[in-house]
């Protein structure tokens, strides 16, 4: 029986993918060379990442076994795409509850989790403005550059400056009550801090010989981070060395 649980609340989608020689201009019609469908959605991606990375052998094709239970709350359609999507997640050992979750419900979940002293990892993508009272209930906040800008009323152009100082935004989140803040910077790496650090840290991303596809890279990072947090059974504050190791390993 699993002794620990990670519950993901988010989207489940089926991606419809066409391959064209280039991105079409507005109003232009192009002939695609191929068409395919595939499972996706930020919530589903993160759930699958958690499920696979919680195993001793993430790439194993054997029946999933883990001491961490992975549960998914999301909305799946009753059309031809819904059943295969749910079946695929079930095959990864994910316990699925299909529910429609509007923003007010998500906010209530965050409030309830805080009252129950349940650690919350929030990855607000796509980013929407959050009430100030939500932040003290967030144990781990993971955002990218664009999301960090939108949540703090800054322009994306401002934060994308090569020498931008992320300490101001990170301190804003910490002052609002967030315990741990991580801002992913794509190929540059990530900046991070928790409420007990004197200043934010920076971890450069590991370089790879060839980047094939960055789709769901951020979701995979979030899933890997969540699994490590649960495995270590922390008290809510992640140590600096622990964050360094985790980001450097999982963000590559």
The fraction of residues assigned to DSSP E strands is 15-25%
CATH class of the largest domain: Alpha Beta
Alpha carbon gap, first and last residue: 32 Å
| Quaternary assembly | single chain
What is the secondary structure topology, with strand pairs?
Layout (H helix, E strand, L loop, with lengths): L3 E6 L3 E7 L14 E7 L1 H12 L14 E7 L7 H10 L2 E5 L4 H13 L5 E2 L17 E5 H7 L4 H4 L7 H10 L3 E5 L4 E6 L6 E4 L12 H16 L7 H11 L2
Parallel strand pairs: 1-4, 4-5, 6-7, 7-8
Antiparallel strand pairs: 2-3, 8-9, 9-10
Task: List its traits.
alpha/beta; UDP-N-acetylmuramoyl-L-alanine:D-glutamate ligase; five-stranded mixed sheet; three-stranded parallel sheet; nucleotide-binding
Structure overview:
One of its GO terms (molecular function) is ribokinase activity. InterPro entries: Carboh/pur_kinase_PfkB_CS (IPR002173), PfkB_dom (IPR011611), Ribo/fructo_kinase (IPR002139), Ribokinase (IPR011877), Ribokinase-like (IPR029056). The chain is an alpha/beta fold and 252 residues long. The protein folds into two domains: 1-23 and 34-101, UDP-N-acetylmuramoyl-L-alanine:D-glutamate ligase (3-Layer(aba) Sandwich), CATH 3.40.1190; 117-251, Ribokinase (UDP-N-acetylmuramoyl-L-alanine:D-glutamate ligase, 3-Layer(aba) Sandwich). It is built from eight helices and ten strands. The longest helix is centred in the last third of the chain and has 16 residues, at 217-232. The model has no long low-confidence stretch (mean pLDDT 83).
Give a summary of the structure in a few sentences.
The protein is built from 8 helices and 10 strands. It has helices at 42-53, 82-91, 103-115, 145-151, 156-159, 167-176, 217-232, 240-250; strands spanning 4-9, 13-19, 34-40, 68-74, 94-98, 121-122, 140-144, 180-184, 189-194, 201-204.
């Amino acid at each position: 029986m699993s002794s620990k649980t990670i519950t993901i609340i988010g989207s489940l989608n089926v991606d419809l993918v066409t391959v064209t020689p280039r991105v079409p201009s507005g109003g232009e019609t192009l002939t695609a060379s191929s068409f395919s469908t595939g499972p996706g959605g930020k919530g589903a991606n993160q759930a699958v990442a958690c499920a696979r990375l919680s195993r001793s052998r993430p790439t194993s094709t054997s029946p999933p076994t883990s001491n961490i239970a992975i549960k998914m709350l999301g909305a799946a359609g009753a059309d031809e795409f819904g059943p295969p999507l749910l079946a695929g997640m079930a095959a990864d050992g994910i316990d699925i509850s299909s529910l429609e979750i509007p923003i007010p419900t998500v906010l209530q979940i965050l409030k309830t989790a805080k009252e129950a002293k349940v650690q919350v990892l929030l990855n607000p993508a796509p980013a929407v403005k959050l009430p100030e009272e939500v932040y003290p209930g967030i144990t781990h906040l993971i955002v990218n550059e664009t999301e960090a800008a939108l949540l703090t009323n800054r322009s994306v152009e401002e934060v994308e400056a090569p020498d931008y100082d992320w300490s101001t935004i990170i301190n804003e989140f910490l002052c609002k009550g967030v315990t741990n803040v991580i801002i992913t910077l794509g190929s540059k790496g990530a900046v991070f801090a928790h409420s007990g650090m004197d200043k934010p840290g920076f971890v450069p991303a590991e370089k790879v010989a060839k980047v094939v596809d960055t789709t769901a890279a951020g979701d995979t990072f979030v899933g890997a981070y969540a699994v490590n947090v649960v495995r270590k059974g922390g008290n809510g504050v992640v140590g600096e060395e622990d964050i360094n190791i985790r980001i450097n390993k999982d963000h590559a």
